[in-house]
Amino acid sequence: MHKKLILTAALSAAAVSAFAGGYVHNTNQNIAYLRNPAQNAAIGVHGAYFNPAGIGFMENGFYLSFDINTAIQQRISTTTYEPLAYGVDNGGKPYKKYVGKTFVPVLPHLDLAYKHNNWFGSFHFGVISGGGKCEYENGLGSFEAPVAMIPAVINTLAGANVVTGYDVDTDLVGEQYNFAGQLNLGYKINKNWSVSAGLRLNVLKNNYVGNIQNIQLQYGGAMLPAANVLGGVISMLSGGAVSAEQGAAMAGGLVADKRLDASQKDIAFTPILSVHYKTGKFDFSARYEFNTRVRLVNDTKENTTGVAQFDDEKEIAADLPANLNIGGTFSPRENVRLSLGFNYYFDKQSKQYNGDTDLADKQDYLEHNAYEILGGIEWDVNKILTLSIGVNSSTFGFGDEAKYISDMSFSTSSVSGGLGASIHVTPKIAIDLAVYKTFFLNFSKDSNDYGGYGKKMYEQLAPLLGQMAAVNPGLAEKLAGFTPEALAIPGKEDYSRKSIVAGIGVSFAF
User: Where are the alpha helices (DSSP H) in 255-325?
Assistant: First the structure.
């Protein structure tokens, strides 16, 4: 059967991370970043996001910049789990690759800046996190694995290979956005120092609608509803004391269709401080964004998935982590600029909802905070053309067990490269073109009980099997070995991603 799963790249209130940055932060907030990601000490209208204090060193006047990015991304996870061999579409292989494809045709950014003598101000608008969909044509390992385990459990209980395959239909549509407007006000203290303070308004909105349905098992060469097959097994285990019809009714809840129709929203504020120091051929800057407390509130019309994260009116912690961004620029010649940057994300201090504990403690799984190292070069070829190129290395602190990530929400450490050009059509109008490619490192995650499904399956079946043992006393001895440990099946996930972004923008000086 056809399996289709569409979802946001981060189901657990993380964002689409098509670009470098913390878990919930898109750092490509101006096309200048695509040309050269080391923008922390840049002086220009795009400093409205990257370096608000640097605007104090611009000429008096009003500045405007607008750009559009287009992003193409693949998320690739390969699940190795023995029961997957039962899948009728899996060719008997105990592993399966799941490829999620994301296409964001339009991701806009707007920057405004005004400078008058020592006073200045700026405004930035962009999608700080979220902003895309991800389509998985073959589902995800974490969705398929619980279904894959059903034949193995049935065959163990029956003492024979009575079920030879499974199939399931899944679909989930998710959208995630954080539309953010950032206002900064600043003052140039003297010829060397400039400071700025600002506030970002975050409007967060997520929507999820989906189903897991039509679970079927291959029994006697035919595909049958899973409840019917389970009913027959229950009847057999009861020694005929329970009819197949009664057994199907008893087991129906285990394999019933699941549906989700939920939305989440919140409004949150991020204070921002920025400082810039200029001397001779050197520029230095620092920007600090405070931790943003986010508590998404569910408006759920239906949730039969058993996932507490989407219960109606439940608050979900999804903080935007505080981050420190420092940078420097050196101009060895008037038309050449060398830049470096360092971004540090305080992810371990950022509250995140944990589906395992139902608490805001998922960040405790991290081994260390994430950080980025950036570098780049800009060259004014002549009065018309500026060329630039840059790199960005991102490192995440997931640790060996990597409990923080899953196939629904993951990023891996990466190295990115960007290049582009700025064409100065007139002294006051420029057109920017750029492309930004990210090379993600592979990351593996092993588990002795993949997804905890052995324990979960035991908790679901134990009450039912207890009833069977009461009806058929001879069954108790047979079920003595039916334990969470016995049902635990090791598994492995391998993660990788591909991403490329291109953009075009225009800027004006008035």
Answer: none
Residue-level pLDDT at 2: 41
Cα torsion 264, 265, 271, 277 to 10°: value is 70
Q: How far apart are CA 43 and CA 82, in angstroms?
A: 56
Question: How would you write 352-390 as a 3-class SS string?
Answer: ECECCCCECCHHHHCCEEEEEEEEEEEEECCCCEEEEEE
Report pLDDT digits (tens) over 251-269.
Answer: 777 788 888 899 999 999 9
Q: Say how far apart CA 222 and CA 219 lie, in whole Å.
A: 5
Q: Extract the tokens encoding 409.
A: 């929400």
Q: Which amino acid type is present at position 118?
A: N
N- to C-terminal Cα separation, the chain: 60
What amino acid is encoded at 174 in this protein? G
The per-residue pLDDT for 131 is 64
| AA letter at 48 | A
Q: How confident is the model at residue 410 (pLDDT cuts 50, 70, 90)?
A: confident
- The C-alpha atoms of residue 54 and residue 353 are separated, in whole angstroms, by 36
Picking from 428, 427, 406, the residue whose alpha carbon sits closest to that of residue 493 is 406
pTM over 0.70: yes
Name the CA dihedral angle for 419, 425, 426, 429, rounded to a multiple of 10 degrees: -60
pLDDT beyond 60 at 30: yes
- The answer to whether the CB of 42 falls within 8 A of the CB of 32 is yes
Q: Answer yes or no: are the C-beta atoms of 298 and 344 closer than 8 Å.
A: no
User: Does pLDDT of 242 surpass 80?
Assistant: no
Contact 482, 465 (CB under 8 A): yes
Q: Is the pLDDT of residue 241 over 90?
A: no
CB-CB contact of 355 with 308 (8 Å): yes
User: What one-letter code names the amino acid at 509?
Assistant: A
Q: Where are the beta strands (DSSP E) in 280-354?
A: 282-289, 295-303, 315-317, 323-333, 336-345
